[in-house]
Specification:
Mean pLDDT: 90
Order of helices and strands: HHHHH
Largest sheet: none
Number of strands: 0
Strand content: under 5%
Structural class: mainly alpha
Distance between the termini: 51 Å
Length: about 100
């Protein structure tokens, strides 16, 4: 059975990095649209910031990177998988700083 492989132009570290940074933001936007669409976006961000759920919510949004990582590993696209890991580490540091600051 032949394995699916990415085109060489997408088998790059930066592709995984950009995808790993944007995917949790996309999940956060979907959460906003599904649960809090009656609020303006700035009010939603202010509300989650004041109620101290920003860091747990971001932590849950970053879980999508786990799925992306396994997809890239299964397709033997190791460079984008490294980018996903780098983006996840970036989010982990950011969330850690948020937890210390709040």
């Amino acid at each position: 059975m032949a394995k699916f492989r990415l085109k060489p132009s997408f088998n790059k570290f930066w592709f995984g990095l950009v995808l790993g940074v944007l995917a949790p933001i996309f999940v956060l936007i979907c959460y906003y649209l599904l649960q809090y669409s009656y609020l303006k976006a700035d009010t939603f961000l202010f509300k989650i910031f004041l109620s101290n759920i920003l860091s747990p919510l971001l932590s849950l949004c970053v879980l999508v990177n786990l799925g992306l990582f396994f997809i890239f590993i299964q397709t033997e696209s190791y460079k984008p998988a490294r980018g996903i890991i780098a983006a996840t580490i970036f989010y982990a540091v950011f969330i850690f700083i948020l937890k210390l600051a709040l």
